[in-house]
Write a structure and sequence with these properties.
It comes from Geodia barretti. Its main location: secreted. The protein is of the alpha+beta class and 158 residues long. It folds into 2 domains: 82 residues, Omega-AgatoxinV (Irregular), CATH 4.10.40.20; 33 residues, no CATH class. The chain is built from 4 helices and 10 strands, in the order H-H-H-E-E-E-E-E-E-E-E-E-H-E.
Length: 158
């Protein structure tokens, strides 16, 4: 019975979200085709109070979900949080391993990286970071709008 209720709740939420569906494309990340992205100026006009962020695929500019607003979902159909926020998903909000929905909450700034990851990562700002933790530290602690990007963005680096 609980599963039926959850299913109906998800269907209801999807039917109530026409703006979120418009701003976050319902598609998998099968490559970036910027021709399918909405014009940045139009996006900016449609969300004057929100930050512009990249969609879950890192391809199109969309309106960021603000503090307390829904986020996540399959292919990010509920939206992507603004840069100083993170999408927090309660464990009960998963259905068959898929994130049904989350809520944008404040990101926690950890002063020290606890991960021992040694693989450097490229940021969409063209800078190399010593690991994913260092990139996230820059994003959350320094307030930069950096996210992980393909290595071609950074070139050969050092």
């Amino acid at each position: 019975m609980e599963i039926v209720f959850r299913y109906l709740a998800v269907v209801y939420l999807v039917l109530q979200l026409p703006l979120e569906v418009k701003t976050a494309p319902l598609r998998g990340c099968d490559g970036c085709d910027t021709g399918r992205c909405e014009n940045v100026t139009l996006v900016q006009e449609s969300c004057p109070e929100a930050q512009l962020v990249l969609d879950t695929c890192g391809c199109c500019t969309i309106c960021g979900s603000r503090f307390g607003e829904p986020c996540g979902g399959a292919y990010g159909y509920l939206g992507t949080c603004e840069y100083d926020l993170k999408c927090t998903v309660h464990p009960s909000e998963y259905l068959n391993g898929v994130n049904i929905s989350g809520i944008c909450t404040r990101a926690v700034c950890r002063k020290n990286c606890t991960k021992r990851a040694r693989d450097r990562v490229c940021g969409n700002d063209g800078m190399w970071y010593r690991n994913i933790c260092a990139l996230r530290q820059s994003k959350f602690c320094k307030g930069t709008k950096v996210s992980e990007a393909d290595s071609e963005v950074c070139g050969r680096g050092l």
